[in-house]
Design brief:
28% of the residues lie in helices and 13% in strands. The protein is an alpha/beta fold. The strands form three sheets. Strands 4-5-3-7-8-9-10 form a seven-stranded parallel sheet, with helices on both faces. The protein has a three-stranded antiparallel sheet with strand order 2-12-11. One of its GO terms (cellular component) is plasma membrane. Belongs to the peptidase S8 family.
Length: 423
């Protein structure tokens, strides 16, 4: 299908490790230049350490939730995505015909799907947020970057068709790791179609921010009912290029995060494209644990339980903060109004106890004053014992003071002391 001026896929700049062995190939003729397999990265990535979604797995692993990845397809043969039932066949809207969506030429969609639902594997630190969620691959692009590094465009009608298909298949979460500056009516209507069917639509905020003073438009993140996601780095700072605007509802790791690649292995990548699936995976955890919540209620729960970010609450760069999978599932939020408290009725006084306390206080008071009286008697007796013998010796006559001398007292100065001897 020829390229048409349309929505730009959010750029995903990738730094790859060494090559590995391919496990699967796309249908014949589907990919002109498929990317090679990559090596397995055993170390646990910083994003998985930071969010630690495994803490919430005793409560929810995303079971029963279908997450649509509207992207470049998903390699269903990746070892961490190959468990039966994890990745559906899906559909390819990029090529006309009946091709499935479960293949990928460039790893973009496979990386997004892995962040959402990759199974843990022995000796591998990378895993998805919601490993029991089911992935619906919806292929709407071949690649996001051309051979010269330029951003490629996607037919907006193809994007709209993919979103509508995902909603019709019953997807409860739809991940859109794409962003553009233009508002296309067909995509806007498709998003509204999905939102009306209780799908939570999660979209990347985009990566074209040049400075912090300008709010760039971003669609579909800015559409009603869409949860817009920005990206942060390992220090919690806004990733360079992550767009700033009122459409940023949350942020998630998006700088040097590890993602799964087509034909096996892993790659480090940057972009809000890879921040969005951390939120989509968390939404799958919530929708599994709280199936009675509607999509807007799930969105409110995600923002209400977000961890504080550098920009403060409601920042156009950070939104409500950093997504928190554990709190999003476990916090006991109640959106209902608080109930009326019953009238306070004090217990009747315990009169017998009050009488006992009063009697004890009276006894203590009496004892105190009795002690003071006894001490006073003892002091008077001691004084009398000292004065009576003296009175008897003087025949009870008053005593006289010693006479005062009439001679003045002369204060003679001390003898002179010479500190320096005479010569």
């Amino acid at each position: 299908m020829p390229a048409v001026a349309a929505v730009v896929v959010a750029t995903a700049v990738q730094t790859f490790a060494g090559a590995g062995t391919a496990h699967a190939a796309p249908p014949p003729g589907a990919c002109q230049d498929p990317e090679p397999a990559r090596a397995v990265v055993p170390a646990q990535p910083w994003a998985q350490q930071f969010l630690a979604p495994q803490r919430v797995w005793p409560h929810s692993r995303g079971a029963g939730v279908l997450v649509a990845v509207v992207d470049s397809g998903v390699d269903a043969d990746h070892p961490q995505l190959a468990r039966p039932g994890k990745v559906r066949t899906g559909r390819d809207f990029y090529f006309a015909g009946s091709l499935p969506g479960a293949f990928d030429c460039v790893s973009h969609g496979t990386g997004v799907a892995g962040i959402i639902a990759a199974d843990p594997a022995p000796g591998v630190g990378f895993h998805g947020v919601a490993p029991d969620a089911e992935i619906l691959p919806v292929r709407i692009s071949d690649r996001d970057i051309g051979s010269q590094g330029e951003s490629l465009r996607i037919d907006p009608q193809v994007v709209a068709n993919g979103i509508r298909y995902a909603a019709d298949q019953g997807a409860k979460v739809i991940n859109l790791s794409l962003a553009g500056h233009e508002d296309f009516a067909v995509i806007r209507d498709a998003v509204a179609y999905a939102v009306a069917r209780d799908a939570l639509v999660v979209a990347a905020a985009g990566n074209t921010q040049r400075d912090a003073a300008t709010e760039l438009p971003s669609f579909p993140a800015a559409y009603d009912g869409v949860l817009g996601v920005g990206a942060v780095d390992i220090d919690g700072a806004r990733m360079s290029g992550s767009q700033i605007g009122r459409y940023v509802d949350l942020v998630a790791p998006g700088a040097k995060v590890l993602a799964s690649t087509r034909a096996g292995g892993h790659a480090y990548a940057d972009g809000t494209s890879y921040a969005a699936p951390f939120v989509s995976g968390t939404a799958a955890l919530v929708r599994s644990a709280w199936p009675e919540l509607s999509a807007p209620e799930v969105a409110r729960r995600l923002t209400a339980t977000a961890s504080p970010a550098r920009g403060g609450l409601g920042s156009p760069a950070f939104g409500a903060g950093v997504v928190d999978p554990y709190r999003a599932v476990t916090d006991g939020l109640d959106t209902a109004k608080p109930g009326a408290l019953p009238a306070f009725v004090p217990d009747p006084p315990d009169q017998a106890r009050l009488d006992l306390i009063a009697a004890r206080e009276e006894t203590a008071t009496a004892a105190k004053w009795l002690t003071v009286a006894v001490c006073g008697v003892i002091a008077i007796a001691a004084l009398m014992a000292s004065l009576l013998p003296r009175g008897r010796r003087r025949g009870w006559r008053s005593g006289r003071a010693a006479p005062v001398s009439t001679e003045p007292v002369v204060d003679e100065p001390p003898e002179q002391i010479f500190l320096i001897s005479e010569r």
